[in-house]
Amino acid sequence: MTTSSPSPVQLWVAGSRPRTLPAAVAPVLAGTGAAAYADSVVWWKALLALGVSLALQIGVNYANDYSDGIKGTDDDRVGPLRLVGSGLVPARSVKIAALGFLGLGAAMGLVLAATTTWWLLLVGVAALGAAWTYTGGPSPYGYRALGEVSVFVFFGLVAVLGTAYVQVEEVTGVAVAAAVGVGALACGILVANNLRDIPTDSVTGKRTLAVVLGDSGTRRLYGLLGFVALAMLVWAAFSTPWALLGLLCLPLLGRGAATVASGARGMALIPVLRDTGLAELVYAAGLAIGLAIGA
Question: Is 263 a domain residue?
Fold first, then answer.
């Protein structure tokens, strides 16, 4: 019995790393929840912000696949299919896809900036630069233990506060709490990913934060990020106790934390990425609903 090769569509879908997409949806939910609390939801801007976030996330995923693939750092990687590293898709095609999605995100972001304030253009340029240079360029910061910082900033602070700002046009306390909490969980996804990859990253010279902290330090960091996210719900609850609906993420977050604490390695950590991503989505949705109810 032979197994069929994946179709081109299946390859491209797998290469987009769909399990990471909750990290793109969550900040928009949380930011829109903060806007609802301020009674200032602008639905077309919220939907456009969602488009920006999804396009940038997919663009980042393809850009990382391309850059890691041409550098050879994905050759022995455990986990999801790599398009370039596996040799199944030409590097040039993956690069074009990455630039296409980043360009699409930039175009939608341009509309938001044009209808809100000009300085959002600067934020957009910084986000695009961070997306490409994470693993691309001559000195990728993802290889210098700065990936988690970037994820916290751009998929937490910028994404949540940006979504809220284009609707409310001011920064509020609940938006900051939501941004820190969502950013911590988004960071947790990358921490779990890099924990899994410590053995291969150490060999290929990819100096991630997990490589710097080591196995035990990275496991502690994962737990700390979950604690920070939960603490932000308590902060938001001072504005409205309905914010505690974000605690619905606890079963997923707890399962991921238990797996990490158990010393799981390699493929056994892949469910943690799924659980953390879903926990972030449930956290953001619960918080957003709570803020809307408590408005």
Answer: yes
Report the domain count for the chain: 1
Phi/psi of residue 193, nearest 5 degrees: -60, -45
Note whether 248 and 194 are within 8 A (CB): no
Cα separation of 288 and 35, whole Å?
9
CB 213 within 8 A of CB 147: no
**Is 4 inside a domain boundary?**
no
pLDDT digit string (tens) for the chain, length 295 residues: 445 677 888 889 988 888 889 889 999 999 999 999 999 999 999 999 999 999 999 999 999 889 888 877 655 555 567 888 888 889 999 999 999 999 999 999 999 999 999 999 999 999 999 988 988 878 888 888 898 999 999 999 999 999 999 999 999 999 999 999 999 999 999 999 999 998 988 887 888 999 999 999 999 999 999 999 999 999 999 999 999 999 999 999 999 999 999 999 989 999 999 999 999 999 999 999 999 999 7
CATH of the domain at 183: 1.10.600
Domain of residue 57: give its range. Answer: 22-294
Instruction: Report the predicted TM-score, pTM, of the whole model to 2 decimal places.
Output: 0.91
Distance in angstroms (rounded) separating the CA atoms of residues 257 and 252: 9
Question: For residue 162, is it within any domain?
Answer: yes
In degrees, rounded to 5, the angle at the alpha carbon of residue 283 between the alpha carbons of residues 159 and 135 is: 45
